[in-house]
Q: What sequence folds into this?
């Protein structure tokens, strides 16, 4: 009898221990699931908390809507994405309450650049019986290290969310008057669809951001092209310069001092024959008082390292010293400059 009681007691204790373990395991699983749920919810809040709808479209299907949204939108301008990492998304929803996400894609990820969307240049049109939306954006790198501006012209199929991008890269120059002076980049995907490619180029060429030269400005000898002409004369095809051993330049009757902008008045030097004006981290321009003509001596632009001081060593020789030049200053003999034109 005692043996039977002992066995019953042992079985009862085993059941209690087993039940307690199962309950503890179940509680542990619930805690783990709850923790994962909170983590996922937090991720969703981080990803979606700062996005703002920029464009919204009804589609051919009455119960669907397409939205283009951006992250880190500026408080002052909805079409400026001003974060350290900017993202442009496209999403398709069903018009339920709440709206149900059907499909989404990323149109752009831009690090350490401000992204400006052109509020005046956008277009919705039918192409090959499909509904498309075209718009433009510009990426402007933060800091002073990169002077470039990067344009993207995007053509989005509002039915499939497939999109095409035509890129244009360059920088503002003297001749471009703050427009981007550069070139379109090759795109093999666009080469495979000539209709889409032509639509994008037509659209992009309407952009006020792209420098579009007049017929006069297309002539390399026109004074507004003096920077490009100087580079063409002094740099080889592989990008190497012969400066300052041999300097080639061009005479201009137009006032390059005025066209280049206000110079470093404190750093300008002159004698009976020449006036030389340095521009802060920019060009070095001369004026021949006898010929009454202007000529570029050095064309350059940088964020740091090319601020310069100049002085006459003789009536026709100047010395150019740079702010971070650890070597010998450059000596330029103005009488030995080779001019591509003669007055």
A:
């Amino acid at each position: 009898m005692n043996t039977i009681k002992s066995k019953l007691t042992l079985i009862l204790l085993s059941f209690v221990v087993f039940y307690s373990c199962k309950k503890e395991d179940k509680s542990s699983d619930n805690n783990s699931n709850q923790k994962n749920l909170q983590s996922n919810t937090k991720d969703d809040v981080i990803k979606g908390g700062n996005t703002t709808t920029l464009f919204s479209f009804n589609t051919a299907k009455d119960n669907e809507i397409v939205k283009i949204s951006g992250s880190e939108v500026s408080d002052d301008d909805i079409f400026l994405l001003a974060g350290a990492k900017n993202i442009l998304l496209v999403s398709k929803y069903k018009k339920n309450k709440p709206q149900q996400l059907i499909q989404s894609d990323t149109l752009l990820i831009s690090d350490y650049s401000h992204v400006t969307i052109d509020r005046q240049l956008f277009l919705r049109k039918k192409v090959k019986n499909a509904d498309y939306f075209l718009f433009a954006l510009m990426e402007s790198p933060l800091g002073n290290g990169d002077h470039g501006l990067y344009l993207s012209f995007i053509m989005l199929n509002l039915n499939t969310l497939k999109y095409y991008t035509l890129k244009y890269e360059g920088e503002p120059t003297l001749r471009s008057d703050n427009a981007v002076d550069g070139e379109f980049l090759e795109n093999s995907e666009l080469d495979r669809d000539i209709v889409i490619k032509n639509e994008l180029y037509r659209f992009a060429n309407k952009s006020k951001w792209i420098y579009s030269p007049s017929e006069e400005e297309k002539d390399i000898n026109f004074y507004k092209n003096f920077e490009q002409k100087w580079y063409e004369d002094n740099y080889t095809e592989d990008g190497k310069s012969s400066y300052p051993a041999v300097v080639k330049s061009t005479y201009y009757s137009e006032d390059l001092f005025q066209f280049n902008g206000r110079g470093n008045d404190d750093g300008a030097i002159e004698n009976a024959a020449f006036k030389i004006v340095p521009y802060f981290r920019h060009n070095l321009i001369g004026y021949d008082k006898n010929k009454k003509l202007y000529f570029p001596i050095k064309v350059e632009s940088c964020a740091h390292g090319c601020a310069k001081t100049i002085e006459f060593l003789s009536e026709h020789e100047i010395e150019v010293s740079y702010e971070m030049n650890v070597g010998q200053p450059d000596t330029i003999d103005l009488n030995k400059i080779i001019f591509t034109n003669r007055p």
Summary: Residues 50-204 form one domain. The chain is about 20% helix and 35% strand. The longest strand covers residues 113-127.
